[in-house]
């Protein structure tokens, strides 16, 4: 899997979340984390399957798909990923639940790089995706170290 661009994303995310938490009621905080877990992981799975199918030389689509002229054998993943990133940016400023699909998905994509094996914990423990990401950011990792250095340089 190729890494996703991340320039201070984990730390910026948590700084934003800390501000949010000051103004959220406890129920709203819980609701957001549950939507990130449920719908964010569903969005992550949708894109992860597409990514893996596009990267695999062994991938064989279902026979019914081979006759579909619009089916590109998942070759357009890079374009789709770019569209999803654009949509994520737009959703960040909008109200509604859809933005939590994207924050959950983005956290899961980061966890792929920062905490291999996170999926088993996300499905068996009573942890949110954010809890796992917070834990991952406490561990030494080149991506996290570089991100912290860039953040300090900006200040």
**Strand/helix succession:** HHHHHHHH
> What count of domains describes the coordinates?
1
- Major β-sheet, in short? none
Give the overall shape, derived from the CA principal axes: globular
Cα-atom Rg, whole angstroms?
Answer: 17 Å
Low-pLDDT stretches are 1-8
Residues in helices, as a percent range = over 70%
- Using DSSP, what is the number of strands? 0
Question: Mean pLDDT across all residues, rounded?
Answer: 79
> Structural class of the secondary elements?
mainly alpha
The number of distinct helices, counting runs of at least 4 residues, comes to 8
Give the terminus-to-terminus CA distance: 32 Å
Q: How would you summarize what this structure contains?
A:
With 155 residues, this protein is mostly helical.
How would you portray this structure in words?
The protein is mainly α. The protein has one domain. 71% of the residues lie in helices and 0% in strands. The protein contains 8 helices and no strands. The protein has helices at residues 9-23, 26-55, 63-66, 77-91, 98-114, 118-124, 129-137, 142-154. The longest helix is centred in the first third of the chain and has 30 residues, at 26-55. The radius of gyration is 17 Å and the shape is globular. The chain starts with 8 loop residues before the first helix and ends with a helix.
Features:
mainly alpha, 0% strand, globular, 155 residues, 8 helices, disordered N terminus
How does the SSE layout of this entry go?
Layout: H1 9-23, H2 26-55, H3 63-66, H4 77-91, H5 98-114, H6 118-124, H7 129-137, H8 142-154
């Amino acid at each position: 899997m190729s890494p996703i661009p991340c320039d201070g994303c984990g730390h910026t995310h948590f700084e934003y979340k800390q501000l949010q938490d000051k103004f959220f009621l406890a129920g709203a905080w819980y609701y957001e984390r549950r939507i990130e877990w449920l719908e964010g992981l569903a969005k992550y799975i949708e894109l992860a399957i597409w990514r893996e199918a596009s990267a695999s030389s062994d991938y064989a689509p279902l026979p019914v798909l081979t006759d579909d002229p619009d089916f590109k054998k998942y070759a357009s993943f890079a374009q789709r990923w770019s569209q999803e990133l654009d949509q994520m940016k737009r959703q960040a400023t909008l109200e509604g639940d859809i933005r939590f699909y994207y924050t959950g998905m983005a956290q899961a994509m980061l966890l792929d790089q920062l905490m291999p094996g996170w999926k088993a914990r996300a499905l068996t423990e009573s942890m949110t995706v954010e809890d796992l990401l917070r834990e991952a950011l406490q561990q030494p990792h080149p991506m996290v170290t570089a991100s912290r250095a860039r953040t300090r340089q900006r200040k």
